[in-house]
Amino acid sequence: MIDIDKDWLSSQYSLRFDAIELVVDGVNRTYGARAGQKYFYLRLYRASGRPLSHIIAEVTLLTQFPDRADVGVSRPVATADRSAHILELACGGGLRHACLFESVEGTRSSLHLLIWRSLERPSRTCTWLCQPPLAETSEALSL
Fold first, then answer.
1. What confidence tens digit (pLDDT) does each residue in 63-85 have?
2. Residues 6+ apart with CB under 8 A from 98
3. Which of 22, 44, 53, 59 is the least crowded, having the fewest Cβ atoms under 10 Å away?
4. Is residue 29 classed exposed, middle or buried when 0-12, 13-18 and 19+ CB atoms within 10 A define those classes?
């Protein structure tokens, strides 16, 4: 079920979306959105999930990561008027927050393994998150 109108979404951003598809159906829905050759992900946060302050913190953190050729960061996309990254929209009879993120090239399984290994050893999680990114995935996986 697609309940996001591509024309409405296009009007919210400086993009013209050709197609929208549901990628993850659950309490936090994720849609894939194509605009020409670019691909984006629209995340709908569940209404009873994290407070808006946590979503703002996530978006702020992602916008602050420095640009590096060896690390891809899926950054939030600002609205057409550049006033916000987070939208509020009616969905399923209630209001939900939504944020559009750029798609980033990468190897999905390596990232999941890296996160899992860092969480497997909670004492190292903060160290991993606070250090500069490792240049080689194989180095990162040896944590």
1. 888 888 777 888 999 999 988 99
2. 42, 43, 44, 45, 86, 87, 88, 89
3. 53
4. buried
Of 101, 82, 85, 86, the closest CA to residue 40 belongs to 101
Nearest to 95 by CA among 29, 26, 44, 21: 44
Counting every residue, how long is the chain? 143
**Vertex 11: Cα angle to 104 and 90 (nearest 5):** 90
| 72 neighbors 105 (Cβ within 8 angstroms) | yes
Q: How far is CA 23 from the centre of its chain?
A: 13
Residue 98 reports pLDDT greater than 90: yes
Sheet strands side by side (includes 29-35): 19-24, 29-35, 38-45, 94-102, 86-91
> pTM of the full predicted structure?
0.70
